[in-house]
Amino acid sequence: MELISLYPTWFEPNLGSGWVIGIIATFHVLASHTSVGAAMLFAYLSYRSYKEDRPDYLDFVKRYGLFLLVFTYVAGSITGPGIWYSTTVGSPNGIGALIHSFVWKWATEWVFFVIEVVGVYMIVYLVGKVDKKTHMKISLIFGISSLATMVIIIGILSFMMLPGKEQWFAEGGYLNGFYGTNTFVQMGMRVAFMFTMTAVVGGIVISTIKDATFKKEMTRKLGWLGIISTLIGSALFQWYLSSVPEQALLVMENRLPDYFEPSIMAVLAGTLAYFIITMIQPRLLVQGFAGAMTIIILVAGLWPEETARESMRKPWVAGQYVYSNQVIGRDVPGMDIQSQIPTLEKVGLLKAHPFTPEHLREVNEGNRIQAGEFITMTYCSNCHSPSQTGIRPLHRYFPDGMTQARMEDYIRGVIEPGTIAYMPKMPMTEDEVTALASYLLLNNEGGQTAITAAIDKEVADRKQKALAKESSDSANAVISLNSTTSQEAH
Amino acid sequence: MDAGNVQHITDMMYALRNPAGVPTYPIVFMALGVLTFALHIFFVQLMLGTAGVTIAGAFSSDPHWRRLSAAMLEVAKVSVSVAIVIGVAPLLFVQVIYDPHWYTSNVLSADWVIAFILILILAYWSMYFYYFQNSKQKGVEAAPKARWSMILSVILLLVVGYIMHNLTKQMLHPELWQSWYMPNGQMDYSGSKLHASNLWRFGFFISMAIPVAGAMMVTYRRFKMVREDADMDYLNFAADVGKKWISVGSAIALAFYIGWMMTLPETAGDFGTSFWGIAGGVALIAYALWAKVRLKNNHPLCSYMALPMAVVAGLVVAISREMLRYGILEGFFGYDFMDYKVVMDWYSTALFFITFAVLGGAVLSYYLTVAWKVGQTNGVYTPSATVDRMGTAAIWILLLWMVQFFAVGFWVWAQ
User: Fold this and answer.
1) Which residue from A307, A128, A169, A58 is spatially nearest to B381, judged by alpha carbons?
2) Which residue of B has its CA nearest to A176?
3) Window from A417-421, B53-57, B210-214, B340-344 with minimum mean pLDDT
4) Of A115, A118, A103, A104, nearest to B354 (Cα)?
5) Same domain for A248 and A120
6) Does residue A147 sit within a domain?
7) Are A102 and A60 in a shared domain?
8) Could you say which DSSP state residue A338 is in?
9) How many angstroms separate the CA of residue A261 from the nearest CA in chain B?
10) pLDDT-based confidence at B156, cuts 50/70/90?
11) What is residue A484's predicted lDDT score, i.e. its pLDDT?
């Protein structure tokens, strides 16, 4: 048997598994970046409180800390592993590749994560219960540990786009995979934007300050933090774009939605305007305004940014060797990893997939739509949903009036060899081409209703045939038994 | 199941392994997985048990119960965080050596995996809602507000526990994966069902929350009794409740454990009567007996040992659980995680252990020492010179770690 490492497929028809991962990841980025930025802000304010004997700074730390504890730490600490969960079900080989290369890095991050969680409780609940010097030390430890969690994870995130060094493919090694230009530029960019988020979310807390003078002071402090970090982050974003593979830029130019660039620019400009306005007029900083700004950043800034980062890696999902459809599409001699493309070219998808049911291993008249569906789910559904809604629905890509022959030609000429820059190679046998074309055509013409009806019929026919075979076998067995009995009697 | 089928399943599991291999010997990941699971499940049990005490106290008119309820809510709240953060580690290690099983199990119940995240957030927020509704209330005269939210929180926590139980149990049934992927002859890509549960097993891990909460109450008395403002009547009441919960809870948990061992799948063979099958139950009995004898007179040291001893009993059970998994997957199906391809990486392996032991040890010793002392101090706590130096050392170690991270990084980058 020539099986490859393909798992069952989870198909979510309304959003698509890709969007589910994206939504959880975006929310986590907001929560985690804000938390790390706030941790560093707390360290700074605790230090100032200790040096200048300013208890009001510690009060602010307590308020902001409690706010973070309830909202971002709860949600952030759950959506963090939540990204594992969602990628596990949406892209098991993608997350598997990261886990198996960077397990110790994640485990190291976990040590800092434990410190961070204990630290946030101590920062919030020990204000006024320990002396200022001790609180400052607790805050410093908390700040550095939070930053450590971030710099570690960025190396892993960068690997998703491309390994740190090209040598990784030939030599392997964690260091070659982790550190590279993209790692450091992304680190700088994220640290900058993390402070922007801290300043925006901090506005929600500042808006509750009653003392006008203190409110003005904190608004200005966070305003400057926000302005400087936004400008630095924007500059680093340009540098970041120069550190990604050419392929990614090509995808970005051709595949990202039209709203991407204006949306990012509008959010950056809006964020700067927000900081300037609230610095000039701190009384305008009310909970609604700060809350709305947080949501704008989440929806119009982070969502397109994270979506872009996801899209730009295509056709790869991890390390430029795992395709978005989970197939390993490239040799990595340094890790003794072999491409699975030759196996697929040799035996086809249905024979190579460990979860292909017995009756689908060979395509025939009685299972063509089921086989086509199985191939579509495995090869396509991570990026293209075979439903009306969801992620880039397949039906949008084929005109009305397609014929079986044209669809087969398209699969042979474009899909199989992977001639579209951002799509993987998808080798299959001639029978599988026929099955896939039949399924896509039916999906295009009749949608899910037609597919369900066709599959129901195929399943019913198969069961009927099995029943007929069973009764024929038992009849033969009876005849054979009678004949044996008769011979024995003779 | 005939030999041909078993061989097919074994081939499938080996095919699903990640070709990148693992960066150190697989046994190391197994050991860390067991250890961190034991800690994780301990905090899960502490969270559930103390949440149970919170609810029991919230519905009682006894002032001691009300007070205990508020105190245990503080423990429950922190325990949720700690359970989550510690739970990350076994979740990581299981993906390293049992990736074929964990990923397949998750994909086949994907909707529930996603629901897990949302339900856990709601459970946590629900607990915080209850906390904020009652945090300003000083006395114990009035009944707590929004008790429904605490009940809801516990129910939701039990639901996420049940989801996790199913995901773990499904790993043990590779012979059924195909039928779950194609029920009634038709493919099911929805991931909308949970497929395998054993209520004895689930009930066992949940019921352990009772003795663990009992141990917490015993420790609570010991911890608070040294304060000048200690109310010994109340603290003795808490310890008495705790001791009762340890005895009764251990008996309930033992019954569930026996039920679990008697309902193991055929693929587990005679695990229930094997050394490790019996060891889990013996650990429970030993813990209950130890508590009965050593906690009788509220012995000062033993009162502090109530929680660590519960961790030890939990660790034995965690080893039994791991041996059961190994017994089924290796013993019956011939899948041995020990032969996972090793692509040795000494640097990242060493960095983890040094970070874990030196940095983690230094920082957490400082943090926990301060937290401990604050809990026993009236007014503002000012650390001694030694404790203060521990803080300074922790900061320096952290800074050194950051320096090495970037120094190594820039060196690699520059090559």
Assistant:
1) A128
2) B412
3) A417-421
4) A104
5) yes
6) yes
7) yes
8) -
9) 31
10) very high
11) 65
**Residue in B11, B107, B352 closest to A10 by CB:** B107
Q: What is the CA angle B33-B37-B40, rounded to 5?
A: 140
Q: How far is B112 from chain A (nearest CA, A)?
A: 10
Judged by phi (left if over 0) then psi (alpha if -120 to 50, else beta), residue A128 lies in: left
Residue with tokens 């996420």: B160
Contacting residues of A for B73, CB less than 8 Å apart: none
The mean pLDDT of B241-252, rounded to a whole number, is 97
What ipTM goes with this model? Answer: 0.95
Single pTM value for the model: 0.94
Q: What count of residues does chain B have?
A: 415
Q: Is residue B108 within 8 angstroms of chain A, CB to CB?
A: yes
Cβ–Cβ < 8 Å for A161, A248: yes
| pLDDT at res. B197 | 96
User: In whole numbers, what is the pLDDT of chain B averaged over residues?
Assistant: 95
Confidence of residue B298 (pLDDT cuts 50, 70, 90): confident
Residue A310 CB: number of other CB atoms within 10 A?
18
Residue A489: is its pLDDT beyond 60? Answer: no
Domain final residue pick, A292, A323, A354: A323
By percentage, how much of chain B surpasses pLDDT 90?
Answer: 91
pLDDT interval class at B33 (50, 70, 90): very high
CA distances to B83, B202, B310 from B46, rounded to whole Å, are 9, 16, 10
Does A111 reside within a domain? yes
Residue with tokens 């820039």: B410
Which CATH number does the domain housing residue A266 bear? 1.20.1630
Chain A interface includes B128 (CB < 8 A): yes
pLDDT value, residue A427: 97
B185: left (phi over 0), alpha (psi -120 to 50) or beta: left
Query: In this predicted structure, what is the pLDDT of residue B154?
Result: 98
**Which of A254, A288, A323 is the endpoint of a domain?**
A323
**Chain B residues within an 8 Å CB radius of A458:** none
Window 337-396 of B: residues touching A by CB (8 A cutoff) are: 341, 343, 345, 347-349, 351-352, 355-356, 359-360, 363-364, 366-368, 370-371, 374, 377, 380-383, 388, 391-392, 394-395
pLDDT tens, B328-363? Answer: 999 999 999 999 999 999 999 999 999 999 999 999
* Residue A329 included in any domain: no
Minimal Cβ distance to A106: which of B92, B366, B409: B92
B103 in A contact zone (CB under 8 Å):
yes
| 322-341 in chain B: CB under 8 A from chain A | 341
Question: Mean of the per-residue pLDDT values for chain A?
Answer: 91
Q: How far is A379 from chain B (nearest CA, A)?
A: 14
Amino acid B380: pLDDT: 94
Is A8 close to B104, i.e. CB distance below 8 A? Answer: yes
Q: A292-296, B8-12, B89-93, B167-171: which range is least confident on average?
A: A292-296
The answer on A297 and A167 residing in a single domain is yes
- Of the given ranges (A296-300, B39-43, B326-330), which has the lowest mean pLDDT? A296-300
Query: How many domains are there within chain A?
Result: 2
Question: Distance (Å, rounded) from C-alpha B162 to C-alpha B169?
Answer: 10
Residues A53 and A170 in one domain: yes
A304 and A362 together in one domain: no
Find the CB nearest B402 among A148, A176, A455: A148
Tell if the CB–CB gap between A335 and B114 is shorter than 8 Å.
Answer: no
B-chain residues within 8 Å CB-CB of A112?
355
Cβ–Cβ below 8 Å for B405 and A92: no
Q: Residue A300: which of A289, A308, A311 has the closest Cα? A: A308
- CB atoms A462 and B185 under 8 Å: yes
Question: Is residue A360 a contact partner of residue A462, using CB atoms and an 8 Å limit?
Answer: no
Same domain (yes/no): A349, A391: yes
B360: chain A residues, CB-CB within 8 Å: 111, 114-115
Nearest-angstrom CA–CA distance, B413 and B415 = 6
Q: Percentage of chain B with pLDDT > 70?
A: 99
> Does some domain include residue A332?
no
Q: Which domain holds residue A250?
A: 17-323
Which is more confident, B9 or A469? B9
Residues making up chain A, counted from first to last: 490
Interface test with B, best of A88, A98, A387 (most B CBs within 10 A): A88
Residues A383 and A294 in one domain: no
Domain co-membership, A295 together with A359: no
